[in-house]
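Input chain follows. Return structure tokens only.
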Amino acid sequence: MLSVDCGVTVDNCGYLSWLGQDLYSFGRTMAGEQLTVDVTHIDHADVLAVRGEIDMASAPVLRSVIERCHASGTSVLLDFAEVTFMDSSGLGVLIGASTKCAESPSLCVRNASERVRRIFELTGTEYLMCRESQ
């Protein structure tokens, strides 16, 4: 089991247990590659730097981190600069989180790769992207 000092414990199967208020998360993708989410709190917002693949196996990890941030009443800015793949599971997490937060706190994605931006375009979910990223 991994124990990370800034808030989350995740075992090798991806089970989460919260330890503190700050967040840091590890998860496994279907291919066994690691999804990493680093959370930094800046000016009433949590910036989630997401790295790796977001798929059926790792999407619950991302969902848990986003829900934890929303529960604290902060806006969530997802930095996808290092997301190499996202399937419908990841899109579902983002749509669900966006629906739950409605107006406040807000959620948006920035720095998405062309491949991930194309998913937003094809599904009509460009509203999930930060204005400067569109």
